[in-house]
Amino acid sequence: MRKVYLDHAATTPLLPEVREAMLPYLGELFGNPSCLHDWGDAAREAMDTAREQVAELIGASADEIIFTGSGTESNNFAVKGLALAQQGRGKHIIVSAIEHFSVLHSAKTLEKWGFELSEVPVDRYGVVDPDEVRKRIRKDTVLVSVMHANGEAGTIESIPEIARITRENNISFHTDAIASAGTVPVNVKELGVDALSLAGNQFYGPKGVGALYIRQGVRVMPLLDGGVQEEGRRAGTENVPAIVGLGKAAELATKDMASRMKHLGYLRDRLLNELPARIDHAVITGHPENRLPGNASFCVQFIEGESMLMLLNSQGVAVTSGSACTSRALKASHVLIAMGLSHEIAQGSVLFTFGIDNTEKDVDYVLEVLPPIVEKLRQMSPLYAKFIKKGEGGA
Amino acid sequence: MPIYSEKVMEYFMNPRNVGEIDNPDGVGEVGNPVCGDMMTFYIKVKDKRLEDVKFKTFGCGAAIAVSSMVSEMAKGKTLDEAKKITPELVAKELDGLPKNKFHCSNLGAQALSKAIDSYLKKQAKGGKK
């Protein structure tokens, strides 16, 4: 059976070049970068190179990059670390309603610690209106965090415009670029942000490693206390092989970005155009144009995402869904709900995210196997029966 | 480890008794799309036995497998016997359900019971049979 992996938003495979670059650091070059002997020197040198490579990817300087253990850690570090470092100035923070849980839940934790939180809504395409951010700014606002791109809806936000507002008001601005860095051009100077999160496993690097950009001169409270790794901002012996892998992946992403984007954009557009033509009542979610090149997200009405996912898996196709049944918390995706979709429609969420190894044949295969799956589930669905008989619930 | 047992997968992939019954003797509907699962059961009764049971389900793999299993367990049973099908029994027959899905997906017994009640109510009002 054909195997088609279309869940690159969950994680990308490791590129062979990246694995090759990592291997020596899982072998003979096992030293601790804090040590002053040859073993330590070799590890430290490798980390310096990786830091340059990551800095290059986002237009930063190497000393503005802190390595972390994941994108989630980067987001926790940015939100909590920036807010805590400035709590003397004020205790109000602003985040968008469609942030990843690592930002949203960090913000909620800050609430428990005495901060006040404002959430910025999004429109039906998942776009944050910069004016909505402006409206929520108060005298005591110390941090705004709005993601660069949403991995689920694919929508890319107007970060430079929001940055202009935060700069005018002298407020720190963090953006979660985990879904976008390494996939589309991300330049911290052009975006105008004070902090930016990224993660290796989103662009063919290893899992368990991320980075946080902190603009020169911006203070951040460390989450982890201990030694003086990462200039004292992130204690703990570094995961050198993963950091080397992240660096290599960043270098390749910088080099190949334009051709990757073209390839992914083509596959995405084919699916976005052809799937609704083959399946009635399948709506595209997210912004029609301003979206990540590999992201094709839909809600298929009258059926539920998990059963669709399972039947696709039985045909060799790996996807994800934002339906309540798919999530461990059994709640529909907060992103889809924030975009104004009803629970009923959000239940039919299915997300295809392409990677560089996918081909046009993969799109053809999805277009071949999905319609009968949808048909099978609709024949079972009481909602579809109601729609056919009475026209109820159509969108 | 896969989240579902082989039996759940089998009943999900090849569901039994999907559909509606024309002029059913009883109909039972449970669930709502917010929690994710909706089930409608249709029954045909003859000599106080469930001559036919069919269902339609909107929901996850577990919900479809549950409906399918309940329909199979109920078919041919007397109304009293069918009323004794509990969510626990259904889960046991399916070799278990994921803990977090036990309640939301395991609505089949309830939907069947509602269908039987609707039949009994009709009977009490002096309907047919």
Whole-angstrom Rg of chain A: 22 Å
- The parts of chain A where pLDDT drops under 50 for at least 5 residues are none
CATH fold annotation of chain B: Sufe protein. Chain: A
Q: Which chain pair has the greatest contact?
A: A-B, 26 and 28 residues
The proportion of strand residues of chain A reads 5-15%
Number of helices of chain A: 13
Described by the principal axes of the CA atoms, the overall outline of chain B is globular
Task: State the CATH class of chain B.
Answer: Alpha Beta
Total E-strand runs of chain B:
3
Query: In the CATH classification, which architecture of chain B applies?
Result: Alpha-Beta Complex
* Largest sheet: number of strands, sense, barrel closure of chain B: 3 strands, antiparallel
Report strand % of chain B: 15-25%
- The amount of helix of chain A comes to 40-55%
How would you describe what is shown here?
The complex is a heterodimer of chains A (395) and B (129). With 395 residues, chain A is an alpha/beta fold. Chain A is 42% helix and 13% strand. Chain A is built from 13 helices and twelve strands. In chain A, strands 2-8-7-6-5-3-4 form a seven-stranded mixed beta sheet, sandwiched between helices. The relative contact order of chain A is 0.15. By secondary structure, chain B is α+β, with helices and mostly antiparallel strands. Chain B has a single domain (6-121), classed as Sufe protein. Chain: A (Alpha-Beta Complex), CATH 3.90.1010.10. Chain B has helices at 6-13, 61-74, 79-83, 87-93, 102-105, 108-124, and strands at residues 26-31, 38-46, 49-58. Chain B has a three-stranded antiparallel beta sheet with strand order 1-2-3. In chain B, strand 1 and strand 2 form a beta hairpin. In chain B, helix 1 crosses helix 2 (61-74). The mean pLDDT of chain B is 92. Chains A and B meet through helix 9 and helix 13 of A and strand 2, strand 3 and helix 2 of B.
